[in-house]
Please model this.
Amino acid sequence: MVGDEQRFGVLASGAYLPRWRIERRTITEAVGWSRGRVKPGHGSRSFANWDEDSLTMAVEACRVALPAGAAPTRLQLASTSLPFADRSHAGIAREALALPPTTRLGESGGSRRAATSALIDALETRTETLLCGSDCVDAQPGSEGETELGHGAAAVLLGQGDCLADALSWGTVADDFVDRYRAADRRFDYRLEARWVRDAGVRGPLGELIGQVLGQAGIEPSQVDCLLAPLPAPVVRAVARDNGLEQADTAGELESCVGLCGAAHPLLMLHHALTRASAGQHLLLIGAGQGFDVVLLRATGNGAGQAAEPPVSVEPNYVRYLGLRRLLEIDGGLRAERDNRSSQSAAHRRHLDLHGLLGGRCGACGKLQFPRADRCVHCHAAGEQTPESMAGLPGEVNSFTEDWLAWTPRPPLIFGNVHFPGGANVMMEFTDFESGELETGQVVRMAFRIKDFDERRGFRRYFWKPAPVEKGHG
Amino acid sequence: MAEGIRDKVAIIGMGCTRFGERWDCGPPELMIEAFEEARRDAGIEPDQLDAAWLGVFYQEQSTGKSGLPLSQALRLPNVPVTRVENLCATGTEALRGAVYAVAAGACDVALAMGMDKLKDTGYAGLPERTKGSFEDLWQPSATPPGSFAQLATAYARKHGRDMAELRRAMAHISKKSHDNGLLNDKAHLRRAITEEDVLNAPMVAYPLGVLDCCGVSDGAACAIVTTPDNARRLGHRDFVTIKAMQLAPSNGWELSSSEWDGAHTVTTKLAAERAYAEAGIENPLQELGLIEVHDCFSVTELVLMEDLGLSQAGCAIDDVLDGRYDRDGVLPCQPDGGLKCFGHPVGASGLRMAYEVYTQLLGRAGARQLDSPVLGLTHNLGGVPNRNVASVSVFGLQGA
Model:
């Protein structure tokens, strides 16, 4: 056995998938006419609510992965779809996760293997890292990608100690093979022929790298229990067949139910496998995108059975899906003209409170409040409040409404007064609830979301919203 | 407690425009229309005014800042005009400024004008507004019906009442105000409705349907005040005096503390207690002859009956359904149709309520005249249930 002090691997993992799914059949029934003889398709894909992006999903995945009190040396986000070109998303995530300001921050993108490449970097340097892959890439309506892609995020905490999986060997190979690309100023991918990609771009170079990585660890292909390749199922089957990996489980249900989630997908598959793997199972993790990363891990069985069951809802209305994803501009009426310019100086004064949902705990009366203030709202003591995160507290709905007059991309705007343990009440906008789902007395969890878009200035601001509680987390 | 302002100030003239979608009027025309009625009533010319207060809430909408819109519209003789704003209590706040100035002896005659021109927004409901640079970063972009709908869900939860039962009482409130509004030719909404109409109306913000909501209107109302002695010198024999004017703003407790149940307005209770003490009222249900309360939404009026000490906690549903607050009930509420049907040009509403009480006390209410009331109460709730300004004022015939 390798001693804990020498082991470096996956200490914890977590995933976040949006609540919303749309069945591929729904998509093809709506727009399949545009491409002629298209099969209706099986399964579904995930899509982010209007107030989610790759940053909010990353925060949610990190919250699941990050053990209480953990403060990793580095926070690394990997994505091809982070919303700002010049603003540190990891910096916002750091505040949402209440990690110390001394946390080293990194972001990587440019390829769907951004997360696996960052994983290899962390393994090489043995840097304790909270690594998150997240992607929220939309596809042009009617395109092949519309049924293939999904939205999601997953995170792993890498470090020394009692692991969920030990990293045994790894390798990488770069190849500017343009199977698809997305220009910086374009919203959608441009894709090349799938059979050319499979046969000329994947099978040869990936097979060679797999052989090298297995060889480094002295593992036979027949010993691989899971082949975690973020590729379409036919390509995964070909790779398995080429490399003697037919016996390996390919976690294909993720692609079937969620879709391929870009840079997030390898870590989504890894988390999925870790929550099921028994001790000693070998997991072969692939990253693909202008080259390949391959990482061989051996599960310890410590992560099995830890998956929560988030609520899932299928959207039957294709046009609503388009509207929520801003793929179709639905008229919001005159109220949608509201100018959401942020006062950055006001926001910066309270950015930790807003991004971290930090309330104030009064040293005089011991009660909690949001927003934090100089004078306690309960006992009026001055200067006694210390910041305290309310993000992990359960909320209880004291009152709510479904407001059909207010503008929101997903009417009705549901908001209400939420009570928190410790005496705080906050009027909040709810998310991921449908009309008729909310009741007073209901327990809700806090989710990090986009509060408002400022379309005129290309800005978006983030805050927390009460969301449905996951089964097993309530 | 200070001795207060009871009977120190008299109202010698009031005016109120027809409320509604006044496409024919801008702010100056509305103010002139209200002022001309008050001027004739009081027998006062602009050059007899020592000072004026202008209440406008949505100044950014169409009116502009400062006291200038009033000074310009009436061509006042350069007397001080102070513009005030305190949410939906703005009109009452304008009156309070004028009343306090007269009570203090700083003015002999003062004008209080409340006005809002809301229908230039181009859409239904109240205009969007900012809550401030910090609040906008985290508070929901709520509408007023959505904010007040919270009272209903919290009230049902607190008192264990079925929402259908609560909605039935709310429907009764709306129907009652429509019945009253029919008798008022200045009211914005003048049509009879049934409780079923209310219950079946399109939902605006659960559980408030469109007929649970008051009208958003253009309008102006004003009062001319002086001392009782001066009123007599000016030839007024019957006039109304101010018995109490109290104001209570939230201090953030409802917004931030889970100890607030969400089912009552803290500030109304406080303002009412102070106003009853100032006016010398011990049993408001028996002593008051009419009330005009802030019925921005049906559920608000229901909850206010408890907050004003007129119904026991948890019993307003039953009292409302028993007809206690109907025109022919123990204590008529909104005999002019209220915000619900007279309409709600925010800055004017406090003075519009005072106008109805004044009119009723002087026996000038025509078809809707009540049976010889001697004391009347007005109440405004500015803001939303978790953060608001409540004003409670009591008016009475001199000597009452």
